[in-house]
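Quick note —
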Amino acid sequence: MASRAEKIDRFPNKIIINISEIQNLKSPKAEPLTIFLRFEYNDGQFSESGKFDITDGSPRQVDHNAVLGVNASDPVQIDDLGQKPVLITLFEAQPKDKKQKEDKSTPIGQATLDLWPLLKNETQIPVTIPVYAIPGSYLETQGEQNQPSLKVNVSIDQPLVPVRDQSNTNAAYITLEGLYSPPEAWLAGGTTFVYTATLPIPINDDKEVTVVFTNGTLRAATDVTNKQKRWPDARGILTVNGTYILGQNINEESIDDEQGELRSKDDKEFRTNSEKTKPQVVWNIERRCFLLPYGSQSLQHQITRVPYLPVEIVRTATPTVPKGKKDEDTGISYHGVAYIETAPLLYPGATRLRGAYKIVPYNEAEYKSKTKRSGNIVDEAMRIANQLFDRSSLNTSKKDAKLTVDKQAAAGAATSMAKKKTELGEESSSATTEAQQYIESRSYITIDIVLDRTIIEERKLNE
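Predicted structure written out below.
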């Protein structure tokens, strides 16, 4: 007989994902193509459809229900819905031969499904989502004009956030765009590196999340940068287009409208020059944090008590081993901090904080003084980043992810750095020397924080 504990459903809230039909999917051959769908979330599979045939690209009825269980009372699971999409992968099923024990299957396309609207009081999400071709599959030959799609309806019996709590919740959308005017030593080439940024966000009175932006890449200013916002957790995504959040873009905005540190006339000229001519680290990641009931009050208390939000930045060597194995060669270097003054979010009616913030070397005393925290969060962030790192880049080369620097520029950077090390003196630690380069290069980040609701309401004239 099962115990009472075994009978308790750890995931009582059931999200039903119905795929009613596939549109514009054609067989590349004269005979029908047999396919099936696999559903994954949070790095794990939770459903798989039966097999069915497709032929000429006309709508194909599927009517498969995938059930995803979550626990709406768990703050971590609720937070995950804002940063992790459901992955729906299309497989071509090939009949097994006599020597095989199981059928062969080949992934041909993948779609990403965003469940964030379920935290916005929605109980039904009808949507049509594109299927992106997996590199090397026949779908690449169909072209964007003939892109397949899935007709989806997401439903749930009861809102994930109880009606009584909905008016007390909030959400923060944090977009880290890039790091500009990086240290000259980063341009020398050779070893490849990954760039990670992290900051803490309180989601209720006794819980905070460590927000991590990883997979930052160093790019030349001449590279065309896609301004679509990317998913913070891209594990399992097999296509480049799938890493972008559908319909979310970064728009060009005037520096005059910002609240950051670098807004003077000289700053504007420096930033324009840096962003147009110098290499830069690109993230373009949006991290959505759902602030649980009374989350706004928690955020208000945090800002009032500690007006500075630390964004820590580090550089590590690109991991060279599969996930789950220890990599001894990814030492942390260039530990810097940008201190974001968040007081403007307490202005009546304010819902946005956007700007450029200078990076300074991490200094433990300064960090504790400005943040009132006992220590930094880099170790926790790197543990998370190691899970989120896009290891597909270990096996495939990405055209726009590498910085090309000519030999003369690399030699100039190396000579300049050697001179600076001499000027700083041998007794300076390598960590301090490295981080000092942020100041010498006038490095900065651009970040955008948007809230669904104001923390302090703007009073009306009649009040």
